[in-house]
Amino acid sequence: PLNAAGKFLYHKTDLCATWEAMEACKDAGLAKSIGVSNFNRRQLEMILNKPGLKHKPVSNQVECHPYFSQPKLSSLFCFIFYSRVNVSSPPLLKDPVLNAIGKKYNKTAAQVALRFSIQRGVVVIPKSFHPERIKENFQIFDFCLSDEDMKEILALNKNVRYVELLM
């Protein structure tokens, strides 16, 4: 929700206490591993610097793609997640740079975007119900983007979210 000035009102949850409860669940065998979702750098650092930390988060499930590359956050760790796509955002897969790079490698813009994330060390879990796209998503390990390609794609960052964080 927003306040009268239009600024986000954040919940006052004690993240460290919540993390301790999650650690207790892991210690009790109720979870193999524990992670977080949509944490920003400050929130991650709060957990990672918590006195008595037993278990580090194994993942931070966040949106991350060429138009929203989150370079500072991905230096900690990043996990791809798409849902509730915001259709008013620019169409990533129609981007001329991604398509030109794709043409160079005989790949689609989607394959270039996935390969870009893989080469940045980001864990990618694409979602599709279409068998041909699922197969296409696996065909990203037979090529590597050049350093120049990576720089061009990184320069596409517009800080545009496709996932609307509705609370």
| Relevant CATH superfamily of the largest domain | NADP-dependent oxidoreductase domain
Count the strands? Answer: 3
What's the order of the H and E elements? Answer: HEHEHEHHHH
Order of adjacent strands in the largest pleated sheet: 1-2-3
Query: What is the radius of gyration?
Result: 18 Å
Looking at the overall shape, the CATH architecture of the largest domain is: Alpha-Beta Barrel
How far apart are the first and last residues' alpha carbons, in Å? 7 Å
Tally of separate domains:
2
How many helical stretches? 7
Shape: globular
Q: Would you give the CATH topology of the largest domain?
A: TIM Barrel
Based on helices, strands and strand pairing, what is the structural class? Answer: mainly alpha
Strand content: under 5%
Unreliable sequence segments = 80-87
The percentage helix is 25-40%
Largest sheet: 3 strands, parallel
**CATH class of the largest domain, anyone?**
Alpha Beta
Average pLDDT score: 83
What are the SSEs and their pairings?
Blueprint: H1 15-27, E1 36-37, H2 41-48, E2 60-62, H3 71-74, E3 79-80, H4 96-105, H5 109-119, H6 131-138, H7 147-154
Parallel strand pairs: 1-2, 2-3
Pfam families: Aldo_ket_red (PF00248)
Protein name: Aldo-keto reductase family 1 member D1
Family: Belongs to the aldo/keto reductase family.
Task: Explain what the structure shows.
The longest helix is centred in the first third of the chain and has 13 residues, at 15-27. Residues 80-87 have low confidence and may be disordered. α2 (41-48) links the parallel β1 (36-37) and β2 (60-62). Helix content is 37%, strand content 4%. It has 2 domains: 1-61, no CATH class; 62-166, NADP-dependent oxidoreductase domain (TIM Barrel, Alpha-Beta Barrel), CATH 3.20.20. With 167 residues, it is mainly alpha-helical. α4 (96-105) packs across α5. The chain has a 3-stranded parallel beta sheet with strand order 1-2-3, with no helix packed on it.
